[in-house]
Amino acid sequence: MNKLLAQKLSHSMRRIRTVEETIAERYSEQQMRCPTHLSTGQEAVSAAVGEILRKTDLAVSGHRAHAHYLAKGGNLNAMIAEIYGRVTGCARGKGGSMHLIDESVGFMGSTAIVGGTVPVGVGLGYGLKLKGEQNIAVIFLGDAVVETGVFYESINFALLKNLPVLFVCENNQFSVYTPLEQRQSTTLDIYERVAGLGVMTEYGNGNDVVEVYNKTKNMTEKIRSGGGPAFLQFDTFRWREHCGPNYDDDLNYRETSFIEKWRSDEPIARFEKYAIDTGLLKETEIQTNQIEIEAEVNAAFEFAVNSPFPHADEASKHVFAEQHIKG
Amino acid sequence: MSEKTTFAQEVRDALHHALSSDPSVLVFGLGVPDPKGVFGTTTDLQTIHGEDRVFDMPTSENAMTGIAIGAALGGFKPILTHQRLDFALLSMDQLVNNAAKWHFMFGGKRNVPVTIRMILGRGWGQGPTHSQNLQSWFAHIPGLKVVMPALASDVKSLLLASIFDPNPVIFLEHRWLHNMQTDVSTVMAPAKLGEAKLLSRGDAVTIVSMSYMTIEALHAVSCLKEQGVEIDLIDLRTVSPIDWTKIEKSVEKTGRLLVLDTGFKQVSIAGEIITHIIETSWQHLKSQPVRLTAPNYSESTSPALTQNYHVRADDIVTKVGEIIDKELNCQQLIDQRSSLHDVPGDWFTGPF
Q: Cβ contact (<8 Å) for B66 and A150?
């Protein structure tokens, strides 16, 4: 860890947190009219992985994709405008919060069906291998994805062809209101089951950005040197409801002690305490940083709110492509 | 006499040509490089073009469809082959939620040029899950093009058009067409998807057909011609999009419409065509439009149970007789049959 990296990780986590919390704050205005899955509390995985990936690496994600998109370098204005349904959005208002894309930084798309982009990421990896590039394909997924059939089909092909694919599983331990142990056998942890398939695996605390960074860095180097696919499991915790801006702890689907344990170990405070204690960051730097982030985020919301809606004629457009579009 | 080739060989030639002319083309599917080469449609392609571009695959239809989509996003043009349409049903999530939607749901940011070949089975014990003609499923989905070649002389240009189209294309090949013969041609020009073909001209009745039903229709048309009944026979070639102009023009002339469909009757392409013509050409209709399709139950395995399952040329002649209210003879069509009802010809000895 050095000062520059510490600054970047702090900045990235705070930027994601600020975006998500601003969405939560303004959601009730009824201008962001689409289902939105926030990553508040889960920022560490995206921030660390995002710092390691190159711009030329390719990434896909699922329904909770804001943090992945932002950490990969996706355009903030285009994301907020997309959630507001504006024509300046990254998908011109066709996709909303769950359909983010910014190919200029290698964010190839997020989609709304659990597991839906897993094979797409593997296919991107196959293409990278055929082109002989040192880039990797990264698939962000949640713990429910390992319950789908397509996940195992995809792992098998990635192994069979020794593809440069990194599966990053953020285990927030709940699928909507349902805990992991009601959905999966917990005799073995997720990464232990996946290891049985023959993939390189690693496990870590997803709220510890340093641990995520080190383990991911190590694994991406193995993949780039031809080691084949790898699977990382990072346990973490979502602060707010599965979908929407609210806290839903009054529903009692998560034990109070569980909530308190994870909230007291939240990724930004944890890292910044460490960074200040070790002299990597100063309190004043962090505060200045936060002011700049808030200005950037507010500007993005201003951009979105002041952007026009797509013309009504666009509703029937883009069914078929007229020509091949180069990436 | 000119040299002859087959429908299957023409498919193989189209794939070979695509692989040769564009390094981004990939061909994969269960059995693609095996000794049978998917009914001879992929023979030797791996030897010629290498294992990276032509390969067998795990029995993972859904993931392999997603992998094709990912490869397409990475700049490739994948062609995925299923030996039966029925097997591809496992891939409906990737086809409907990803391939068909990608260009739309990302606001036109990226297209998905994938071609999915699916082979349609029939007869010789194929039974309920190796014989389904579900073209209307795919045609129902905005964003998918659906191609159904009939003539051996058409299949190469239609497949090339599908491969190089910027959109996902479902390419439905009827197993009974694979041995159909045609003259060898060196023409490699792609067809235009969405353009039907008028195979015979007449003013008595418009027959609209697709895939293998067009072969039965051609026999019926020649039998009808001998009896003085001239037919406008339109081979659809693509069932999504449909060439409405050609059908409307023909019905304007004939005022009578018979639609043939290889699929089940309920919610069929035939039903869609009849509805469309009622909506657009009502004033030209001289009689009620009708359709001949598979029934609303699955094809059984035993030959005893498939005797009357499929529409054949003599059924078409009889139906035309009803439409124009004329006694017509179809005995010669029945007499000239040289093989059992559940095979396309003596060349077909199973197993699939």
A: yes
